[in-house]
User: What shape does this take?
Amino acid sequence: MTDIQIDAQFDSGNIDVLSVKGATARLAIRRDHQSEFAQWFHFRAAGAAGRELELKITGLEASAYPAGWPGYHAVVTEDRAYYARAASTYDKDEDGGTLTIRYAPASELAWFSYFAPYSMERHHDLVAETAASEGVEYRSLGRTLDGQPLDCLELGEGSFQVWLYARQHPGESMAEWWMGGALERLTDPADPIARALRQQCRFHIVPNVNPDGSRRGHLRTNAAGINLNREWANPSAEKSPEVLAILA
Assistant: This one.
């Protein structure tokens, strides 16, 4: 029987393939660029229909948060729209700490990830849809080290200034899913709570502070390997232009 194919050459992809034999793969997570952080993974398995896959992600005792693996179950999707959990087990003594994912796809393709991913394409859809809503103003706060725009959506007529920003740590993809829900409600003209908030506040919303890390498949850092959550006291254009742009 032919070997399955594993790849991660796409937006937010992250995995190194160590070996593949049949429906079993031995894998490892790539560290964030110029840093020691490793926890986020996102990859695709092809040639999988009707086979029970055994996917072993190794070396996890050296990951950013090894205590998070026991009891954890990987995220899986076959259509990139509905996300579920794949049965997973963790053995800290196997191959430097190994998460074993077992899953039998109904289709040829299946994607596996640490959390449900929020791609940059979905991000741009969110920004475009929200910017077209009544009362919303768009502005780019600046550019990231990889040259991506730092998108900001502004709304509300009040004097109280409110900043909402998400994904300083790009691997925390659920934060941008939350942003999507928050923006949907804040822009709903029929929602009385949203109307009251817009009357009292001026919102400045940055759905993704770290688009470079998101696209690169990082857990915690930007393109320079910098943890933006630690940069607010002294940001720089060379290492943390994202924080500098928000504070400007």
